[in-house]
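pasting input
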Amino acid sequence: MVPPYIPVGNDKYKVRLNSSTHNNEGLIKKNDPESMANTKRLNEKIIKHLDEYTFFDLDHQEYSEELIVSYGVSAEACKDVVITLREENKKISFLNIKTLLPVAPEILEIINNYKKIIVVEENLNGIYSNILFGKNTPSNVKQVNKIGSLISPSEIIKVINS
Amino acid sequence: MTQNNILTGIKMPFCQGCGHGIIVKNLANAIENSGYSENDIIIVSDIGCSGLVDPLFNTHSVHGLHGRAPALGVGVSLGLDNPEKKVIVFQGDGGVTIGLQHVLEAARRNVNMTLVVMNNLLYGMTGGQISGLSTQKFKEQRHFELDVPPFDIVKLAHISGAAYSARATSIKSFEEILTQALNVEGFSIVELSSLCTSYAYKKLNDLLEVIEEPEILENKRRPLKINFKEGVNLLESLKPIDNKYKNGITKRLGIVIAGSAGGGVQSAATLLATAGLRCGLNTSMKGEYPVTVGTGFSIAEVILSKEKINYTGLENPDTVIVVSNDGLKLAIKRISSTSVVIADESLREEIENYKISNHVVYGDFNKISGKKGAALTAISFWIIKNNNIDLAALIETVSNHRLSAELLLSIENANKINVN
């Protein structure tokens, strides 16, 4: 996806790197057509290749209608939750998202396959849940949020069973 | 001044009368004086009027975020590691103020690069606000921040370790000073006065009245040299932990070890977790202690498991080992209804006051092994009593430790513990 760069400082070709909006020569430009086209091209490239860098683990259990969605350290507690609940013959699936943003359509498609969603994340207000579902959280979505220490499996189970 | 190959020759993008163009032309001459060709030069700049320079130079260019050009310059310089090449960083007084730490870091490491500071006494691109390098006399005229002294970037860079730090105020001296700076091995910084006709003064003489005196300061230092090694794998120096010992574990075990700072709680827990690995188990170890590391409680959690450990927290510890009063205050909250408690004899009265229903085993861990060895003795005692892991695994774990003799003694002391 990213071609090899010619090194800055080489003897043959001049290289220009630029972290600001820039034209085709690598020079900073505010909003001329060339630099705007370049910025749009980069955005399209990000969207076009979304599937190449969207990583997730889906642990789907047949006939399950409930899905736990989590990421990072909280996902580790969710793995234990899945083991415990399945031992109790509860049907449960788990989506561990590795690429959070941009939200790939594939992630939304998976989530839409379940009737009940539990989003587990270690923050105060459920930032990712808000990104997925908006502030007006649908009634089939529950959040498990906590700060200060790890979210424990029993805290997640309590919300699932509530 | 004549046009040279270093510049592209395009029209200067600066306001009429702006001093930045004069600096650019003098730098181009200094580059030629120093014998560099276009492909030898990497111009690094960031945001602001000073950041308009890259199209002017027929060289490599790197353009970054406001205030960060020196940090980028350090990266380019160290990455190139080539004395034939020259990294020249441009900043205004605003950029230097924003990214001052980057300037000082480059100076104290004496990174081979030249920083050209175009000081027009203000943030020109955003409307003429005062910067950290606005001089006191200039601020007096503006009646602004009079009781806040300006940074002297030349002195700051010098005391930070820059090989060469200079301020030039006369346009006639710019080329010579810049040539000197470019020929320095190590970090050189040149602060040059520049006229902002939009927000400061229309006449050069007015500017000259408010700027600081010219100065050259030098440090005799060698430039930073990093020995890059290709293909070095940091994991190669690590020895694998063999798992030749047996374990007697039937279910996942969680152990809390609680004591005082300086009591070796964290290292004893680490030794237990490592010994667990030697017995073919999955293990995790987490420590918690106050920010003031050397005082108060020290508490550690170890999990020993045949299965993969996902969640590393410990909701219901199987065993809680407590060797000091500091530790007890926290450990008491961790004891669940099924926890077995192993406690120092000195804590008996206090634990009995808590009226817990758990099985508590008391031992003279502190009396026999002292404050520093009590935690490891208690852990060893737990191993001997329960045979969950092989004590030989713990002994092998400490055998390569720098304090192996003391640690081995603490382990052996576990045999002397009389259960009360």
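fyi Chain A is about 35% helix and 15% strand.
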